[in-house]
Amino acid sequence: MKPLLFDETHPLEEVLVWGEPGIETLLGQLLPKSKSLFFSYYDVQEARREFRHMQSMIEGAGIRFTRAKDAFARSLSVREMRDVPQSVTEIQQLLLSRAGEYYETFRERKIADFSHEGIHGDIDEVYSQVQDEIKQILQEDVRVYGEAGAIRLNYLLSLSHELPLANIFYGRDQSQTLTDRIVLSALKWGIRKPEVEIFKEALSALGYDNGFVQVDHGTIEGGDVAILGDTCYVGVGARTSLSAVKNLSKKIGRDLEQRGIQIVAVINKRHVEEAMLYGAPTEEHMRIMHLDMFWIPLASNLVMAYGHELDQRDVIRISRNMDSFVIEELGSFREFLSEKGIEIIEVDEAEQKNFATNLLNLGNQTVIMALSTNKRVTQELERRGFRVLSAELNKLVNGYGAIHCLTAPVRRTKK
Question: Which of 12, 202, 241, 325 sits between 20 and 30 A of 375, alpha carbons compared?
Fold first, then answer.
């Protein structure tokens, strides 16, 4: 089937995910926060159970749940790979050795992270838990993918790069379906950059290889991109750059315009400037890293947004005239939405930090929220006729992302 997405509020048919966090994410628990890009510690086994519960909820709604991890594992079975361990025992020892290296190298920095975040944990206990769970998850992978599959998968995800691909389970960032094309991302931080080629290979194995668009200037991440009505919104700030939006316009802007869709950049200028200077993301950058962390479409004329960040953003329209770009300043994000007749349900700072906007819209006035703790937001949505479900992703959100970050729709019913 072809990818098909003309609006983030249309009924969802198929969603692409990576799969449960694995050994690569366990190893990430031993890295300092500045390298891992998520909170200093969370329970990976519990996060795996939460992911499976989320899967059952989405499948229970009649939506096709496509796992890139499984497709990628199948593709590895026919790939020639050098230097791959020859047995489960060998790769287990290599994984445990890598865990030991991270523990020795970053122990003091992890202790400092724990202290800074008020975590009353013991890094030595975390290291012991990681060692035990490496063995457990490796055996689970053997049962699912077979010995050769488990070895190849874990070698590539955990050992073949400078750092383990600990964030890969946030499966929206690596690609984004726009109309009948799939835009491949260019991720900002080094630990995440290899994820795009992995998703490209998985998408090809799934038959979605005829509509790729490769952004080859700047950085762009899937959580920053959404179509609502006649507009393709692209967040520009700590992760996505304006040069990438221009490159996207060059690649598919004309196609979108022919379909009546304009591209606009939604820019936090301060974050853009800071992102060029800092060698690691700040806490604020992580909290508002993408558009979907503070703004989400609910219906054709309704969005939910964190008002403070809304007022930090300016909108510019990007189009092409022959070989040059046409840039039009359109005012603040709030003004732009108001002029389009789009109503805003505002969330406060606590609700934004609790991932209120990072929900999955199933269409037909049904949404799945990451957590049930945003009770005021739930009540407001229900008052407006929405059916609100909760996935209870209490551990998975500790990577600074929630259900919208975990899921990448590839097909929505075109109305």
Answer: 12
Domain extent listing, the chain: 20-159, 175-412
Contact 312, 268 (CB under 8 A): yes
Single-letter amino acid, residue 63: I
User: Binning pLDDT at 50, 70 and 90, where does residue 78 land?
Assistant: confident
3 has a pLDDT exceeding 90: yes
Instruction: Quote the tokens at residue 161.
Output: 């790069």
Report whether pLDDT(119) > 80: no
The pLDDT > 90 percentage for the chain reads: 90
- Six-digit token string for 289: 């890293």
Q: What is the CATH number of domain 175-412?
A: 3.75.10.10
d(CA 289, CA 301): 25
